[in-house]
């Protein structure tokens, strides 16, 4: 009798265990083109592939993520996601075409499967809303919490083209004013086309980089993008809290949920105008986190003498790169203030090869200018950051960019008026160029045939340095 009771109790527990064993499906990201407030449905072998099954609506988790719990029979489970009305709203692959069935094996034990939704077939780059975001741009969250400021913000995520097909880990660039980075429909006066530029560079051999775009706060933009209060505008003063959000809330989330190279040598900041101000402050204040910063048309004037003083009093902690850009058509004070901050880097112990200053004569305080200059800035900032095998590398002093070379290239590591002898030699030993360059002035490579070259550079009073260059 006791044996019977024990057996029955064991079978009861087994039944309870089987009853509560579950398959959890978690959506880790949705496309940028997803209409606000959309419900995410699931169709598969467990509901006769019904694309509008009201019992299979995923639960929003926040942060652009959703989940659903299933109790399917043991065996192969196949599924897809829709927005619920019909198969016309089904998910697509990275190019907006048909997405193969997701598939997993379920054996009755608790299991969690994580997948991103890459695109919607009916809402690709030519969707009715007019979105210009590439297929590999997603809205991570429409209301990502900023606990330091008791508010929330939309966060965009660009993943390299091979993210879904490899196990690579990537450098990460955190960018401000995300409304203007990827999508013309959300921009103020045109987009930077960060996604198109990085996709093109990837096709040319670039390793790839994750970009995290943070929308500005509109009315709170001036407050968040400056740690210093500007009494004339009665704004600013929340920069420390905003930086704390990037460092202690957003970055840990990104590193935990995506394949990143989280070290300082592979992590950067970038922004324009007020976004340039907070990016420079963030770099200088948290050199333990960021080793790279792209500072476009910075609004250093907003902080008075504070930006330069802050940089000068925060000594260099490690190898770094800061790319300064301003336009010749901007007020002269923009370039002057930028140069003052760059000089402050020298006071803080940074070398000349760790900063790059560019002021094209035609440049304006405008998105079209920043869009044009973004690819070269990105290449210089992340040149040599990652090896072909995915290992972080330390920066070398000599770099040619862009590389692969276009019609014109520049050399990093030269002071503004410093002269250097440049020789370019082909694989056959032929010397294609023997010239002198001054500072960051470009030199012509448009006549070089496709192939590999060795570029030798000799600065005055220094030794020859060599670097490989590709011409496609």
What is the CA–CA distance across the termini? 84 Å
Q: So what's the overall shape? A: globular
CATH homologous superfamily assignment of the largest domain: Alpha/Beta hydrolase fold, catalytic domain
Number of domains: 3
The CATH topology of the largest domain is what?
Rossmann fold
* Secondary structure: helix percent: 10-25%
Mean pLDDT, to the nearest integer, reads 87
Largest β-sheet summary: 9 strands, mixed
By oligomeric state, this entry counts as: single chain
Look at the helices and sheets and give the structural class. Answer: alpha+beta
Strand % is 25-35%
Radius of gyration: 26 Å
Alpha plus pi helix count: 8
Low-confidence stretches: 9-19, 125-129
- Give a count of the beta strands, DSSP E runs of length 2 or more: 25
User: So what's the CATH class of the largest domain?
Assistant: Alpha Beta
Summarize the structure.
By secondary structure, the protein is of the alpha+beta class. It is built from eight helices and 25 strands.
Element layout with pairings:
Layout: H1 2-20, E1 23-27, E2 30-31, E3 41-44, E4 59-62, E5 65-70, E6 75-82, E7 91-92, E8 102-106, E9 111-115, E10 119-120, E11 137-146, E12 151-158, E13 172-175, H2 194-203, E14 210-214, H3 221-224, H4 239-257, E15 267-272, H5 274-285, E16 292-296, H6 306-312, E17 321-325, H7 332-347, E18 355-358, H8 367-382, E19 400-401, E20 408-411, E21 419-426, E22 431-438, E23 443-444, E24 451-459, E25 464-471
């Amino acid at each position: 009798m006791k044996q019977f009771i024990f057996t029955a109790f064991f079978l009861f527990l087994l039944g309870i265990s089987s009853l509560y064993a579950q398959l959890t499906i978690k959506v880790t990201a949705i496309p940028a083109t997803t209409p606000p407030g959309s419900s995410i449905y699931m169709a598969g072998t467990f509901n006769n592939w019904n694309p509008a099954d009201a019992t299979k609506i995923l639960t929003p988790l926040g942060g652009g993520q959703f989940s659903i719990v299933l109790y399917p029979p043991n065996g192969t489970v196949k599924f897809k996601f829709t927005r619920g009305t019909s198969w016309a709203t089904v998910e697509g692959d990275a190019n907006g075409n048909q997405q193969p069935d997701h598939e997993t094996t379920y054996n009755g034990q608790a299991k969690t499967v994580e997948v991103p939704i890459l695109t919607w077939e009916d809402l690709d780059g030519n969707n009715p809303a007019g979105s210009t975001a590439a297929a590999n741009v997603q809205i991570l969250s429409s209301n990502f919490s900023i606990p330091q400021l008791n508010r929330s913000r939309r966060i965009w995520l660009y993943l390299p083209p091979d993210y879904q097909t490899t196990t690579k880990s990537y450098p990460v660039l955190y960018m401000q004013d995300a409304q203007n980075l990827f999508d013309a429909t959300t921009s103020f006066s045109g987009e930077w086309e960060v996604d198109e530029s990085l996709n093109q560079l990837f096709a040319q051999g670039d390793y790839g980089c994750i970009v995290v775009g943070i929308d500005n706060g509109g009315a709170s933009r001036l407050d968040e993008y400056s740690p210093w209060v500007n009494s004339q505008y009665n704004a600013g003063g929340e920069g420390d809290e905003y930086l704390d959000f990037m460092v202690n809330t957003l970055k840990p989330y990104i590193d935990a949920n995506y394949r990143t190279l989280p070290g300082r040598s592979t992590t950067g900041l970038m922004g324009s105008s007020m976004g340039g101000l907070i990016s420079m402050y963030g770099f200088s204040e948290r050199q333990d986190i960021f080793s790279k910063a792209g500072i476009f048309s910075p609004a250093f004037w907003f902080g008075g003498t504070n930006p330069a003083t802050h940089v000068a009093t925060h000594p260099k902690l490690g190898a770094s790169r800061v790319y300064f850009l301003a336009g010749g058509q901007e007020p002269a004070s923009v370039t002057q203030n930028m140069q003052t901050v760059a000089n402050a880097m020298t006071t803080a112990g940074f070398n000349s090869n760790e900063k790059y200053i560019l002021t094209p004569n035609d440049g304006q305080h405008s998105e079209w200018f920043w869009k044009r200059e973004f690819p070269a800035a990105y290449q210089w900032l992340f040149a040599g950051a990652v090896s072909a095998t995915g290992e972080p590398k330390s920066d070398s002093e000599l770099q040619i960019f862009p590389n692969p070379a276009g019609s014109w290239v520049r050399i990093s590591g030269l002071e503004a008026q410093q002269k250097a002898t440049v020789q370019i030699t082909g694989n056959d030993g032929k010397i294609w160029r023997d010239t002198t360059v001054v500072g960051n002035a470009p030199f012509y490579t448009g006549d070089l045939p496709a192939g590999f070259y060795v570029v030798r550079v000799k600065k005055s009073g220094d030794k020859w340095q060599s670097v490989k260059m590709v011409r496609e």
